Every structure is written in structure tokens, then in C-alpha cells.
Amino acid sequence: MKLADRMAFLGGDGMGNMLQQVVQLKAAGKKVIPLHAGEPDFDTPGLIVESAIQALRNGETHYVPAAGTAALRKAIAEHISESRHVDVAPDQVIVAPGAKPMIYFAILALCGPGDEVLCPNPAYPFYASISNFVGAKAVSMPLTMDTGFRFNAELLAQLVTDRTRLIVLNSPSNPTGSILQRSDLEAVADIAQRYDAFILSDEIYSRIVYDIEKFESIVSLPGMTERTVLVDGHSKTYAMTGWRLGYGVMPRALAAQITKIALNTISCSATFTQTAGAQAITGPQDDVTRMVARFRQRRDRIVDGLNSIPGVRCLRPDGAFYAFAKIEATDMPSQALSEYLLSHAGVATYPGSAFGEYGEGFLRLSFACSESDIDEGLVRIREALAKL
Q: pLDDT per residue over 262-319, tens digit each?
């Protein structure tokens, strides 16, 4: 079979291989501690579920506009206006089946051959692979442990060129849990304006933050609403990963173009899930507060446990639900170490190399699982590393 050349640019093998091995071990009856999964172990709050059930009973099973239902777009616009302190109208909002399609649509609409996309590294591999897939060139912006995995303004200035079309931000970050501070965002905004570059700001973890007064978005800075695609969604905040519901907020002119892409690809997102999505945003937020409080406890539990293991160093993440641990106890590549922990200790992790070359030497461990899984996983990791 001859495939299009662009298929060679789609990555994610490091994560996909681990998922496949976990499935095989579970099918064989083996217990696996799931420190790899990037989704909350909580159930979707009951009010959200009930709203979807009622929507189905009301016959909300037909096509809706490609950009999303009026109710959900209005709810999102009001939420972003309040939380980011900017004026957002419903016609600036596009709904998609998850945040991933919105990221893809934005890169597809803005970038092409000859363009460069500045991507953080380590970072979610989707940004770079999709940038290359559409014919642009992904350029890595190294993030290092000694700077808390934040952007280095001087290095950023060296990497940006006249070909830089898009700068990708992910704050809070997957896999590091780092959060960009206002000074970081101001440096990025200055460069974006000087080079006439757009910003893709993936803020899917914006509600899952710890130990900071407030979450800062680059869209709130002067002049940045006109050159930013803000991506967010329901998956992480409301434990709705399987519902597939995300959205983008952007300038009107771009929204009109991305609506055309949505119409020609997904037609629309599921109608009844959008009703549930509106309920999630406009309804009580008590369940979100409780989930974040539990994540905070789990964060401290796993980070303290990791740092007590000889040869392991881990910063305390400010957001998301990942610990990005530097493994100094062995010289094994992160992919081999991750596979070793799975086969010899029954602990699933993701290798840092799955998030880019600057993730080598690290493991990503999710604390979106139960406290008992975290405790048992730490014991198994300690014992497995001691054997090395």
C-alpha cells in the first residue's frame, strides 16, 4: 500500500506502544498500576449526565450548526469573558468533538508549506506532528528543569524567524505541569506582535491549578485577542474525556474559516453532549472544586514519594495532573525504562522521549488515579529501580 508522504509525520508511537502493552497485560489477567492515563478517575458529575439523558429523551439527536449549538457557544463566550477578562461573543466560539480537532483545525487553517510552528519541547507530541503533517515545519522550543519548564525569553527570541507563523503555548503543561507566568506571556506576546505570528494557547488544564492566585492567559494581554486561538474543553475539568467535547475561541474572521473546516470534516459535534456541556459550564462547580482538591493531595503524595526514591528528582507541578520525574538512578533511555517498569513492576508510565527529545531522561506519571494506586506504584518503582 502506498500512503501519502504526510503520514510519516504523524507521531505518538511512544505513547501508543505503551497503551498497547497495557491492554495486552490486562487481557492476560495481570494487574497494572495506571500511572500513565491522562484522564481523571472520577465519574462525570451527575447533573451533567442527567442533562444529556434528558436531551436524548427530548429528541436532541439531530444535526446542529457546524460551529456548535447557540446555547453552548453562549455559555463558553460568557465563561471565557469572565475568566480571561476579555470580551468574547458567541460567534468567536467553535465547538469540536474534543480539543484535539480544534488544535488540528487551527494549525490547518493558519499554517502551510514554508511556515514554521514554534512548539514547546517536551510537550504533547500532537502539536509538532500535526504541524509537520500540514506541510509546515515544527521548531522545538526547549524547556528545561532548571527553569521550571517555563519559556526562556532569550532563547525564544533566537528561534523565531520571519517564517514563524504560529507559537504554541500549553499552560498548565502536559507533561510537566508547569504554568507560564505573566512575564513569560508578555515576552511571547511581544515577539508575536513584532513578527506578526499567531498564538495557539492550549488551556485544557486551566481549571486544574494549585498554589497560584489565578491562572493567566495570553489572550488577556493587550492586542492578543486578535492573534490568539484559545483552546479549552470539558475533558479534564469535568471528567468528560469520553464525551469528546472541546472548543476554540478566536477572532471572528478566523472562526468563519474554521467553521468551514468543521463543516467539511466533522459536520458537527454530538447534539446531546453539547447540551450537557452547557450544563457543565453554567451549573454548580462544586464537583470541580472537589476534584481539584483531591488532585492537589495526590500531587503532594506522588511528588514526595518520588523524591524519596534514590536517583529520582521531581518538581512539584503547579497545574494539570502529571509528575515529570527525572530518573538519574539509571542510564537507560526513557522508553526502555518505561517498558522495564511495566514488564518487571507492573507500573505503566509514559517515557519522557514520547514528548520530544528534551523529555529524554524523564518519565511522566499521572496522579489522576487513586491514592492506593499511587502508593502501590511508588513502592513498585522503588523496588524495581533498586534492582537496577
A: 999 999 999 999 999 999 999 999 999 999 999 999 999 999 999 999 999 999 999 9
Of residues 14 and 339, more confidence is placed in 339
Enumerate the H helices of the chain as residue ranges: 13-27, 46-57, 70-84, 99-110, 126-133, 153-159, 182-194, 252-265, 271-282, 286-307, 334-340, 371-387
Among residues 385, 211, 387, the alpha carbon closest in space to that of 306 is found at 385
110, 166 contact by CB (below 8 A): yes
* All three cell numbers of 294: 483531591
Cα dihedral across residues 73, 79, 83, 87: positive or negative: positive
Can you tell me the distance from the alpha carbon of 40 to that of 168, in angstroms, rounded to the nearest whole number?
Answer: 25
Distance of CA 371 to the CA centre of its chain: 23
Q: Residue 48: pLDDT band by 50, 70, 90 thresholds?
A: very high
Residues 131-145: tens digit of each pLDDT: 999 999 999 999 999
Cα separation, 337 vs 334, whole angstroms: 5
CA gyration radius for the chain? 21
DSSP per position, 71-103: HHHHHHHHHHHHHHTS---GGGEEEESSHHHHH
C-beta separation of 25 from 346 below 8 A: yes
CA 9 – CA 189 distance, rounded (Å)? 29
Q: Judge whether 274 and 71 are in contact, CB under 8 Å.
A: yes
Residue 247 parent element (H or E): strand 246-249
Which pairing describes strands 322-327 and 312-314: parallel, antiparallel, or unpaired?
Answer: antiparallel
Average pLDDT of span 198-226: 95
Taking each helix axis from N to C terminus, what angle separates 46-57 and 271-282, rounded to the nearest 10 degrees? 140
Chain-centroid distance, C-alpha 228: 17
User: According to the model, what pLDDT value does residue 26 have?
Assistant: 80
Task: State the DSSP code for 118.
Answer: E
Q: What angle do CA 337, 342, 345 make, to 5 degrees?
A: 100
**pLDDT tens digit string along 83-95?**
999 999 999 999 9
How far is 254 from 158, CA to CA, in rounded Å?
28
**Given this model, what pLDDT does residue 95 score?**
98
| Whole-angstrom distance, CA of residue 162 vs CA of residue 50 | 51
* Cβ–Cβ < 8 Å for 366, 241: no
